[in-house]
Structure formats: C-alpha cells, structure tokens
Amino acid sequence: MDLFSQAEARGIQTEFLDGQGRRRLTDAAALKVILDALPLQASGPLVGRPVVVRAGRATRSELRPEARLPVRWKIVAAAGVVAEGVARARAIDWPEGLTPGVYRLQLADGAAVTEDVPLISAPERAFGGDFDRCWLLAVQLYGVRSARNWGIGDFTDLEGLIGLASDLGADGVGLNPLHALFDDRPGDCSPYSPNSRLFLNALYIDVERLPEFHLDAETSQALARLRAAEIVDYPAAAGLKWRALRSAFASFKAGATPARRRDFNKFRRERQVLLSRFACFEVLRHKFGAPWWEWPQPWRQPDDAGFAALRKGADADEIAFVEFVQWIADRQLGAAADLARKRGMRVGLYLDVAVGVQADGFDAWNEQVAISRHLGVGAPPDPLNTAGQSWGLAGFNAAGLERQSFAPYRDMLRASMRHAGAIRLDHVLGLKRLYLVPHGFSAADGVYVQMPFEALLAVTAQESLTHRCVVIGEDLGTVPEGFRAEMADWGIWSYLVMMFERDDRGAFRDIDHYGANALVTFNTHDLSTYAGWRGFGDLKTKRSIGIDPGESDEARWHALAMLDDVLRHHAIDRNDLHAVVSFLARTRSRLLAIALEDLLGVVDQPNIPGTVHEHPNWRRRLPVPLEDMKSAIDVVALKAATQERSRTPGRS
Fold first, then answer.
1. Which of 103, 196, 213, 512 shows the smallest number of beta carbons within 10 Å?
2. Are 189 and 203 within 8 A, CB to CB?
C-alpha cells in the first residue's frame, strides 16, 4: 500500500482546497513524516468508532458489514459492568439513562472478533448560560499598567479590572490564555505557546499579597524601572518574581500558619497526580537542561513510582516549591472569580484556551500517545495568511485520545473551567479535523487529520454542564460544511468577528446575521485595534516590516465606506468606536466583547501573526494605568452604546 493509500485508510486527507480555493496535494516526504508520527488508529471491526449516547435522544449504532452476528456487548465502568446485551440484528440500540461519564464498550462477534472503544454518556447540550444578553471587557492581562504591579499585569490587577468592568455595566472580563509558560524562557512569552494548558503562568501572581513576602531594597529599586517601561520586560520581571517566590516559600516552610498549610495540602489533593507530575517534570527539566526526549531513559516517560522516590530525595523541596507556586496562582485567580460573583457578574471570567502546546513542555511529555510532538498544528493558506500557518504547537491526535477514553482532553477542559464562567476554545475546528504540518516543512505541506468530532463535543458538553461554563468555539478560517450546525446542536457557541462578517461585495453583514448563541466582537488580538484600523495603522506597520498586509489602501477606504453604510442603515450617524459598539450591542448574540485597547484608543495591535522579532508581540503595555482607566474611558458614551445589554452595578 503506497503512502497516500495508507493515509486515506487512516482518515488523513492529503488533497484539499485551501482558503484561497486552490487545490493542494501534500508532499510525499512530508506525508511519510506524518504517518510515522501518528499512532495507529485502534482497530474498529465492529462499530468502528467511539459511541455517544445522548440524554433525551435514542441512540443506535450500525454494525460494520464485516461483523458476524450475534454480537455481544458490555458497557464497563471502573466498578464493573453497568449494562450488557446481545445484538442479533445489524444495529444496536443503546440503553438510556446511563449516568453521565465515559465508559469502555467491549464487543465480541460470532467469529470471536473483539473490539474495545469508548462509550460516552453525555447531556443533550452544553451549559447554555443563565443570562440573556450581556457584554464583557476583553483584556490582555500582561499589558495592564498599575502603580503597584511589577511591570506586568497580575491577578490583583485582574480584581481591579473586575471592579472597573462591573462599574461600566459589564458582566465579565475576558483574558488572554493564562497557561503555564517556561519559567527559564521569559522571552518566550506568547500565551498561545504554553508549556502546559493544565497549570497557570506564575508571572501573574501578585507576590506582595503573600503573607510570607518581604520587599527588599534591591527589588524595590528595580521596580520603578519596570513600572515605567513601555513594553513588558519579561526577563527582568521574571527574575524578580521568581526570587521573591523562592523567598516566600522558604518563609512558608519555616513558619506557615496551620490554616495555610491545610489549604496548601487541600490544593495538592484537588490537583492530585497531575500536579505531582508537573512539579517533577519542572524539576527534571531544570536538572537535565534538554528536551525531555533527550533525558536519561528512565525519565523520558512519566513514572509515578519513580516520582515517589524523587519526592523523598534531594529534590523534595524543589518539587514542593513548584506546587507552592501553582497553589498561590490558583488561589489568586480563584479570588478574582469570587469577586466577580460577589459583584453579581453573570459570566465572571472568560478564559482563552490555546489550540496546542510546545513539544518540549509538560503536556507533550505527560501525554505522549495523545499528543504528537513531531507535528505542528496550523492552517492552510487563506486570504489573510497567503503562505499558510504553522504554529509549531503539538496537538491531540484521535487514536491516542480514544485509547485513553479522552482523559487528556477532559483534564484540559477541567483546568480551563476551574474558575471560568465561559471559555473560548482557540481554533475549535481542530475538534473535527486538525491541519498538521511536520517540522521542517512549509505550512502548505500539511494534511487534514480527522478527529472524533462527536465524541469530543460530547465530552465538552459534559464538562461544560458540570462546571456551568459556557463554551465558545473560535470557528474562523476554512470551515467544513455542516461544522457550525453540529457545534450549535451540542450547545457550543460560535465566535463572530465583525471585521470578517462581510459579503462578496465587501458589505458588512446586517444585525440579523448574528446568531444568538455566539460571542460577537469587532476584532481579535491578531487583528488591528479599531483606532489602528480606521487610521490604516495596521497596513502601515505591516508594510514597514516587510509583510504583505493582504489589503490595499483602496480596499480599506471601501471597507470604511461599507461600515458607514451599515451604521446609517440603523440610524447611527457616527462611525467612532461607540457607534460600532452600539451596532453590535443590538445583535441577538448573547455575548459581546469589547477590547480595552479600543476603549483607550490604542493604535497598535497586541500581536501580528507571522512575526517574531519584527513587532513587540505580547509585550505592549496599555498607555493608561489601571487607577486612571475609568477617567480615560468615555463612560457616558460606552453606557449609552451598551444600554440594551448592560447590568446595573451590584445587581445579580
């Protein structure tokens, strides 16, 4: 069987139309790397794929033609068999009323052929939210400037933002991903390129809130420079914070109160094995100073028995320190979420979830079957990125997830929803098919790999309902036919960006185009701010650094005219930011996100895709300190624009 036949048999799409309508065929050399990197799909001779049993709906699975009748089946949980039966026809009607969860389905046919696949008992839909229409303040937390932070926004600033947003009538604060990055690579600061999606970035900790913290003269002198800087100096801020955290940990060990020790141990129990493994991984990573696949053989895969020995040896304190840091981060983020609830905010925290992880980070080491480290998630060429995109991030694969009953994906959701009222799954298209690019090849040499879409939606709905957390799927780009309809059927919301919602003539879609179960926004962190867009600042910046902006000045003038047209159609006779907010606030979409950069009139965007050193991505600080933001925002105009969906401060 040749490479392309092997790929087809494994659900790998090597020929497709890209976002520009061009037919693409994957390079054979690239395809060989992809085939070698992906685990073989578990054989499925009887039902062939995970089974999803959905509450309130009859569920039937057709047996594959090669199955020999009768087929005996068992639904098995950790405690034993919960249901069993015999199929004497070529379909099985699954029992209703199963407790929600993930089971193993074991089958055997008349020829003694067996199969073992996941069976998911899911709610009919994800959590739909207990609000009508409201709006959120969208913020890049690292960029928040305040009189007291250490040159980078932190969780105490987040509490200040919650107070600001509540006073403005918002029902939540939306944030960039807060995932753990690499503590020894402070310049590697993209929140979308994490070490782990299961834990938090320690640089968001406000160390001065720790009862064990003591400010020394050296730190005090350095803080003035960090607070005055125009961009985040990650290396300097990280150096100060990690030194302060180590000092606080030493004081904690020497004399923590019984209450704090109890809470620390409670957190350890809450996060259990994953926390222990993460702490051990971080210690080993520093000890060996190399990617985990180059470590001594015994440590190249998680070994809980080995970790138990490690915790009793010379590394015990270092392991406990990593856990201590995660405890502090978790409790400070949790305090912000609690404040939002006390303020009566109906969403609270809206958190972003990156599409993948760095190959040499914790998640890829901890889940070597479910995550393919040799392949990067990306996107084929489209009008916005004509060369395609390879984000260099390792993502989940279907076979590995199915073997582990989707536990790695579930763990990621639980970590993300822990303190959130809503989350956004970046590049949600990856739940149906992932565009994978082998390292060393161009983004145009990738393939689409099919994912167990229904099963992943079922797990998402389960966790969403359990945590009462709305799930929004970032569904931009090349969208497969029927994708949005299936996502909506499971209660996963869409993500509507006004800048992209235009017809073939360039006209902006009217208000009725925007669906109810969706988050609507004018732009994203990867697009121009409103001030930059109106002033052509994004086009000028891209041209100045040698990047094709994908749009001419004439096209931008046309877009501005089209914006005026749609606003005038609704008797909005201005075209400033508040006019656009007023338009979006009238849509049926239940969530509206307004970027803080736009409210402050910032011109430069947080990130320019396709750049690394040409632009200060993920480092720009806001021009106005948190303490002065309310006076810098036109509160009267904002409240008038959002009056249809604003809450009264203090009202739950």
1. 512
2. no
N-term to C-term CA, the chain: 63
Residue 86: how many CB atoms within 10 A of its CB?
10
What the block records as the tokens of 546 is 């040698």
pLDDT in tens, 363-407: 999 999 999 899 999 888 776 666 777 888 999 999 999 999 999
Structure tokens at 103: 């089971």
Q: Which residues contact 470 (CB under 8 A, 6 or more apart)?
A: 126, 127, 128, 129, 347, 421, 422, 423, 464, 493, 591
Site of tokens 């003038």: 557
pTM over 0.85: yes
> Is residue 612 exposed (0-12), middle (13-18) or buried (19+ Cβ within 10 Å)?
exposed
Render pLDDT for 219-256 as a digit per residue (tens, 0 to 9): 999 999 999 999 999 999 999 999 999 999 999 999 99
Strand pairing category for 447-450 and 470-473? unpaired
pLDDT reported for residue 573: 94
Q: What is the distance between the alpha carbons of residues 359 and 354, in angstroms, rounded to a whole number?
A: 14
Q: By the 8 A CB rule, do 278 and 267 touch?
A: no
Count Cβ atoms below 10 Å from residue 112 Cβ, excluding itself: 7
DSSP type of residue 556 = H
Helices (H) and strands (E) in the chain, counts: 20, 24
Please spell the DSSP secondary structure of 272-327, one letter per residue. HHHHHHHHHHHHHHHHH-S-GGGS-GGGSS--HHHHHHHHTTTTHHHHHHHHHHHH
Report d(CA 185, CA 208) in Å as an integer. Answer: 23
- Give the domains, in start order, of the chain with CATH numbers: 51-122 (2.60.40.10), 134-333 (3.20.20.80)
Query: Which distant-in-sequence residues (6+ apart) come within 8 Å of 481 by Cβ?
Result: none
Higher pLDDT, 181 or 38: 181
Q: What is the pLDDT of residue 650?
A: 46
d(CA 393, CA 373): 8
User: What pLDDT digit, counting tens, does each position of 276-291 carry?
Assistant: 999 999 999 999 999 9
